[in-house]
Design a protein that fits this description.
By secondary structure, the protein is of the alpha+beta class. The protein folds into two domains: 92-180; 185-397, Phosphatase 2c, domain 1 (4-Layer Sandwich). Helices cover 40% and strands 25% of the residues. The longest helix has 36 residues, at 15-50.
């Protein structure tokens, strides 16, 4: 990152603002997430003060104040860790340490692209980037995609123009970034069934692209079913979306969300968290679970299971997610499901039954696979759900 910043400072053009704007955007999104947390605290505090919970509000409030001291101290520690990770750009951006920059500059000059500054950067977990200050010195001028093809051919990698850069190389110098294109994409599909017809499901989920070259599946199962469970799990999903889009990962984010659920939780309601984060460059999979159900990975001819024994969010102040790392390949599918899918299956055979059933499934679109898993579970209980049921499937594809 340092070499990029120096390049931009030396160029004296607006590219520096581009990189600094990225950091500023992350801070802005963090601020928005923290504001959302603060609003959650305010609403829960107002509920306690009004005594609407139907309990001894004075006693609850005194206990809350006592517990809040420890939670607040923990939050400052977690927030400091988040900000420290965000500021450690040296771990994200490193010079490529080769002579390809000079070859690129010469090649582009032969094509009529005059390069003032160029830097080839290795980005952690996301391949390479080419940062340059350049202009077109010939007629007609090039589209940026054409220049991307020149660079790709020279480096032997598939590079594309990064979002936010100019789409054309004009007569004036401008700042351009070309990034390595993702190797994979994640195709997804989901199906669900509510325990009670006409009532909202206590399961909530989200499928999103939180950052460059990433895809995420997030599922939360609120305690019980109906509106109360729906609202609790929806809050978990909302906060996870905000933090993921702001670029933040790790235990600290989950701890902050856990604190929100604990604040004023006199009803003792809990929500699980199940998150699958996929690196679309190399197929790396990170699974984080807090009290969540099983996750299955369907490979070509075998199925593996990811389980966790941790507590759901909102139960204790020091809940930490259990992290598992795996590697996915083309054609592999992730099956994420709520506890309701396992209900009704024989207690000692739940994992084995689902594993065998998933193994026998033919290759099919993600939504069809999710439907097949859900129907297989419903058949075991004569199509009467014992709990809210959700199945989400993500298939890695080139």
């Amino acid at each position: 990152m340092g070499s990029v910043v120096n390049l931009l400072k030396a160029s004296g053009i607006s590219g520096y603002d581009y990189e600094m704007g990225l950091a500023g955007e992350r801070i802005k999104k963090l601020s928005e997430a923290m504001e959302y947390i603060a609003e959650g605290y305010r609403k829960r505090s107002e509920t306690l003060e009004s005594g609407s919970g139907g309990t001894d509000s004075d006693g609850i409030w005194n206990k809350l104040l006592h517990d809040a001291r420890e939670m607040l101290a923990n939050q400052y520690t977690e927030l400091a860790d988040i900000l420290l990770n965000m500021s450690d750009t040296s771990a994200l951006f490193k010079p490529a340490n080769d002579q390809r920059e000079s070859f690129l500059k010469q090649m582009l000059a032969s094509k009529g692209v005059k390069v003032r500054q160029i830097s080839l950067i290795s980005v952690k977990d996301k391949g390479i980037e080419v940062h340059m200050v350049a202009r077109c010195s010939k007629n007609p001028c090039y589209l940026s995609d054409e220049v991307a093809s020149f660079i790709s051919a020279e480096l032997g990698e598939n590079l594309i123009l990064k979002e936010g850069c100019r789409r054309i190389f004009g007569r004036d110098y401008a700042y351009y970034v070309f990034r390595q294109k993702e190797k994979y994409k994640l195709l997804t599909g989901a199906v669900r069934a509510a325990k009670t017809a006409g009532e909202p499901s206590g399961d909530n989920y989200s499928v999103l692209s939180p950052g460059l070259g990433e895809a995420a599946i997030v599922l939360s199962d609120g305690m019980g079913s109906g509106k109360a469970a729906y609202l609790e799990s929806a809050a978990v999903i909302e906060l996870m979306e905000r933090f993921l889009r702001a670029g933040f990962r790790g235990d600290g984010v989950v701890s902050l969300i856990n604190s929100v659920l604990l604040m004023g939780n006199e009803a003792k309601s809990y929500s699980t968290l199940d998150m699958c984060l996929v690196n679309l460059y190399d197929g790396g999979l990170t699974v984080a679970k807090s009290g969540a159900s099983l996750t299955f990975i369907k490979h070509e001819d075998w199925v593996e299971t990811i389980s966790a024994s941790g507590l759901p969010l909102g139960m204790l102040p020091d809940v930490k997610p259990e992290i598992t790392k795996k590697r996915l390949f083309h054609g592999d599918s992730i099956i994420v499901l709520s506890d309701g899918v396992l209900d009704g299956l024989p207690v000692d055979e739940k994992e084995k039954l689902l594993q065998e059933m998933i193994k026998e499934l033919p290759d099919m679109p993600p939504k069809d696979m999710a439907g097949a898993v859900l129907m297989a579970s419903l058949r075991k209980r004569y199509y009467e759900p014992m709990d809210d049921m959700t199945v989400i499937v993500g298939k890695l594809s080139r």
